[in-house]
Batch of 4 targets.
Target 1
Amino acid sequence: GDIHLHVVNLSAHGFMATGAGELGRGERIVVRLPVIGRIEAHLIWSTDDKAGFQFERIIRLDDFMKIIEQLQENPRLRRIR
């Protein structure tokens, strides 16, 4: 089924999120990201309120920058082309 996570930190290797309380270490999930679509990640570590996930593969730098551009709400912080 679907679970809703709040991603608080994103990198080309993985992400940190809140709201993963019911997941255990080693569990795999599929997340949907802008630009690249669906990608599998597995839970590496968790605390009471945060969890760290590693992507199945590293996101290419050019795709990662496109993701950040789409997720950046403040237009002043967007990269100038």
Target 2
Amino acid sequence: MKQTKRILALLLALSMIVFAGCGSKTIGTSSKPFANSDGIKENGFWEGIKARKYVKLCDYSSITIPSETRAITGKAVQSEIDDILSDYAVENKATDRAVADGDSVNIDYVGSVDGVEFDGGSTKGTGTDVVIGKTNYIDDFLQQLIGHKPGESFDVNVTFPEDYGVENLNGKDAVFAVTINYITESSVPELTDAFVSEQLSVSHGWKTVAEMKADILNDLQEAAITKYIQDYIIGNSTIKSLPKAILEYQQNSMMLYYQNYANQYGMEFDEFLKTYAGYATKEELLEKNLEDNTKSANYSLVMQAIAEDAGISVTADDVAPYFLKYFNTDDYSEYETNFGMPYLMQVVLYQKVLDFLKSNAVSA
């Protein structure tokens, strides 16, 4: 089974729910804790919602796919190959050269304002990985690492924005005592038939580079067609009104995403939003992501409306084949534990709708 088919599964998941959590139940828009299967029936449909009442569907019976949709560039194929090879990269902790722009660097730091350490401003000696020029830190924090070598300890001086969102940090000058632990360097294997046969035949089903490239191209074309169909049904259907419950679900999923990261950092939700996500409050987080959450909610509503209109349904027997096709395993017990069976049924239902739309689509 070819794991590049995860491209399609991921595309579906991201379109359906932009910020899926991973099973935590510590946050929600109301006082009730949120779980991923909240508001979803065992058959994957939304509880108490007849989607056809809220949507004027487009003609989805034979969607025309433009020829250019299948035009996948060699660069796109190579990007997928690079991602796969990166999984087999050998990492080396370099300590004998200076940090340069673009480097992945492991550092420790302790931040202080007016000589007083502040909450959330320290790695507590556990180290954290940053990429110069990519990781988002305040001011020019990371640029000041350039030119220093692993083993060096020095001060980084920055100024918090006036609207940073933390009262005792807004507009303040801060000093971070930084230690560079090491630079992470990666070397990827050479792409040869021997490498493909030895490393990728079991996981992906490939034995040669040619097979690998052809299959990736096909998967990218399928993903492009899926994306076109998703955009088509949303762009050509009319949402009469959006049930509040579906929008709130997307918002709760988004907050759960951030809550899980906050838990990993050992921080409170509000503190994490201010320090790392750039949102002063939960309300600001919801406001700035309202458009994306609304799009996801609209997509979910339209997908269920098509399922209702076309008589498409799923059973528990459809779940294992879905995971076998897209995740190379029929054991979905961990996913069921983290997300709940209703959530999985909804994912499988929407994939079945997409399969139906693709099977009836025509080429231009």
Target 3
Amino acid sequence: MGKRRSWVWEYAKRKEDKAYCELCDEDENNEYSCVGGTTGSIIRHLKIMHKVYQPEISTSKRYAH
């Protein structure tokens, strides 16, 4: 199975080892670490600041081989 693209990239853009929240205003501190493509810090930001959570995975996709 190949690498999957995280749902967070619907709300953020990555540039090198930084993620930038697209829901924040430009004058806000919207820069988060994503070294190696990690998404923990931007996920926490989306949950706390914007109440955005990972979408549910459908049963058919979850068990697809």
Target 4
Amino acid sequence: MKNIIEGTDFNFPTEVLKSDLPVLVDFWAPWCGPCRMVAPVVEEIANELTGKLKVVKVNTDENYGVASQYGIMSIPTLGIFKNGKLVDAVIGAVPKQHLVSKITPHLENVN
């Protein structure tokens, strides 16, 4: 998972909100079955979109502050952040193509 950053309450502002790249944030927990199902998809996207998209995983059990700030009630929730704002989100384990279709519009201004 070399292209995935572990997000925390502490580093979230720097890694996500101040990122020059769009950011896919995977809100997850170790006990969550659907989270484990979507993890390989998130990793594939991180590898395929290196340099165009930053991927951050936030364990909601350990980082309740960020999860509550964004109203994360169900996991996995995959949030797409651009210019410091949550611009889209997908809840649940979804097929890769569905997730890519949500991310792609936010990549168009990235070289």
